[in-house]
Write a structure and sequence with these properties.
By secondary structure, the protein is α+β, with helices and mostly antiparallel strands. It has twelve helices and 17 strands. The protein folds into two domains: 209 residues, no CATH class; 222 residues, Aminoglycoside phosphotransferase (APH), C-terminal lobe (Aminoglycoside 3'-phosphotransferase, Chain: A, domain 2), CATH 3.90.1200. The strands form four sheets. A seven-stranded antiparallel β-sheet has the order 6-7-11-12-10-9-8. α7 runs antiparallel to α11, α9 runs antiparallel to α10 and α9 crosses α12.
Length: 446
């Protein structure tokens, strides 16, 4: 059995993009581990569940490693130990092939203080697939499987683990099972149960990985829209189609998953959250205080109108979460929800207006990103209107007649963006602040 990884993983983990506590050396505790059967002689595959106790609330990470006597050519060595070389699993074909076999074969494995189970939902899994890691991700690690003549697959390995079903797995699987072609076809997933002192039962259950159809050679809607705005091209046809696709996803989710009428209790809870977001944004950017009365008036207007039923939604919908697939149109991905919200909150029923507001904000971000291009502001207005028209016609919910509610959710999103930009990209701060000013101007403070 390999030695305790806590003794050698800290420095390596601190350099990984998926490690959240940047600038600190992890203080690790292993709470579980499990072995994947390897078909390659001399390779041991172990996935470690490690809690980082550095600061604040402990974070749980999934770290799959391969232990080899010799070094794997071309792969980064995580550590060199007395027994050989340790590599990051996603970069080792011994691990990637075993992971896909776990899903395709629906294997069940008992680990140390945990169990693991693969589930195959749909789609063929070809043999002899070559793997590579998708670069640029922040919180997960995605492995691409492909070879000529075979349907390619992407498997997302969740690095940060939480108790509860991952919405990305749950919602895309439900949509595909209902016949939706607006999401990639799910191939299967890995689910596990492990010891967790923080849970009342002492156990936690969640998803470790999610495999689905990979769409090669596609652009995300952000790049498509950005190129359109830079060329001052009309984007209304594409934006309208995106509104239609969003409405269809909402309709399917409402049909196959629970919904709940939005009564006064639910409205008050949502507005309390919005007021809390306003207070947090003013604390972060004190200059926003001048918009406070008008923002609160927008929220008051929203409180006085009917709200649609709450349901499962995307939760973090923007142009970067949409792919332009030739011959298929818009395909929506990454249903994990707003990344800063706890997993349980991301799985709660919510208003579909949150997704609508997220996409409207994304069009503004395109306009703000192209800066001095003539007509950029008009491009965003046209795209926003076309998206709203498409959503309204498909859903039967006229967004213009529900302007008070849409404005409230869009302001809530802009306040969230303001905090994010102030902390991470100060030069982008004028984009959400400009939206707050514009939306606040719709009302006269009492």
């Amino acid at each position: 059995m390999p030695e305790n990884p806590s003794t050698f993983l800290g420095a390596w983990m601190s350099r990984q993009r998926w490690y959240a506590n940047k600038g600190a050396l992890p203080v690790l505790e292993e709470i579980g581990r499990w072995n994947l059967p390897s078909t390659e002689r001399g390779v041991t595959i172990v996935t470690h569940l490690l809690i980082d106790h550095t600061v604040g609330k402990p974070a749980l990470y999934q770290v799959p490693l391969t232990y080899r006597e010799g070094e794997l050519p071309g792969a980064e060595v995580v550590a060199t130990t007395a027994t050989g070389h340790v590599h990051d699993g996603p970069h080792d074909p011994a691990y990637t092939s075993a992971l896909l076999a776990l899903i395709a074969g629906e294997l069940e494995l008992d680990g140390d203080r945990m169990w693991v189970r693969g589930r195959h939902s749909a789609g063929a899994v070809a043999s002899g697939l070559q793997s590579r890691v998708l670069t640029g991700e922040q919180s997960n690690t995605s492995i691409i499987y492909e070879r000529e003549g075979a349907a390619p697959i992407i498997c997302k390995l969740f690095r940060a683990l939480h108790d509860g079903d991952n919405p990305d797995v749950e919602l895309q699987t439900a949509l595909a099972a209902a016949g939706s072609d607006t999401v990639p076809l799910p191939i299967g997933h890995v689910i596990a149960e492990w010891n967790d002192k923080g849970e009342p039962s002492g156990r936690a259950r969640g998803h470790l990985a999610f495999a689905q159809e990979f769409l090669p050679g596609v652009d995300d809607a952000w790049r498509v829209a950005l190129a359109s705005a830079r060329r001052s091209e009309d984007f209304s046809r594409q934006a309208r189609a995106l509104g239609v696709a969003t409405a269809r996803v909402h309709a399917t989710l409402a049909a196959v998953m629970p919904t709940n009428p939005c009564g006064q209790v639910e409205i008050d809870a949502a507005l309390d959250h919005m007021h809390g977001r306003l207070a947090a944004a003013v604390d972060e950017v004190p200059a926003l205080e001048r918009f406070g009365p008008a923002v609160r008036e927008v929220f008051a207007h929203a409180a006085a109108v009917p709200w649609p039923a709450q349901q499962r939604i995307h939760g973090d919908l923007h142009l970067g979460q949409v792919l332009s697939a030739p011959g298929r149109g818009w395909v929506i991905v990454d249903f994990e929800g707003e990344p800063l919200r706890p997993m349980r909150e991301r799985s709660r029923l919510d208003s579909p207006m949150r997704d609508v507001a997220g996409m409207l904000r994304s069009f503004d971000y395109v306009s703000g990103s192209v800066g001095g291009v003539p007509g950029a502001a008009e491009w965003a207005i046209t795209a926003r209107n076309a998206f709203s028209d498409g959503y309204s016609s498909e859903s039967g919910c006229d967004l213009r007649e529900n302007r008070a509610l849409v404005d409230a959710f869009e302001l809530d999103k802009a306040l969230y963006e303001t905090v994010y930009e102030a902390r991470n990209r100060p030069s982008w701060l004028p984009i959400p602040v400009g939206a707050i000013e514009r939306l606040s101007a719709r009302v006269a403070p009492a």
